[in-house]
Design goal:
Blueprint: H1 10-29, H2 33-48, E1 61-64, E2 70-78, E3 81-88, E4 98-101, E5 105-108
Antiparallel strand pairs: 1-2, 1-5, 2-3, 3-4
Helix pairs in contact: 1-2
Length: about 110
């Protein structure tokens, strides 16, 4: 039976993250780089469900944990995903709006 992450307890989510981490390590040992990326993304989504979406505000700019060369300006938060735009080091805003798990967001910046 399939469950939704929103139905999981925090402990179940942590166990799920542990399973994905183990699978990612095995895939890395086998040289399956694309499979590693899939498991890392699944980990980030599961971790997002352990966070409080209310801690992330629209029109605020946050550091990106996985991409130190960019920040992320949130337009709105829908569930555990933040919708917005990446901003590079030159303060150029990317045109394409994207959704990222809130677990990828770091500290709020002063921009």
């Amino acid at each position: 039976m399939n469950y939704r992450y929103s139905d999981y307890s925090i402990e179940q989510l942590r166990q799920e993250v542990g399973k994905f981490k183990e699978k990612a390590q095995k895939a890395e040992q086998l040289g399956n780089i694309s499979e590693v990326a899939i498991y890392e993304r699944k980990m980030q989504v599961a971790i997002a469900y352990t966070l409080n979406p209310a801690d992330f505000q629209a029109n605020e700019v946050y550091l990106l944990n996985t991409d130190p060369g960019h920040t992320f300006k949130i337009n709105y938060v829908n569930g555990v995903f933040a919708w917005g735009h990446r901003i590079n080091l030159l303060d150029e805003v990317y045109e394409a709006e994207e959704a990222i798990p809130i677990s990828l967001l770091g500290d709020k910046t002063n921009k």
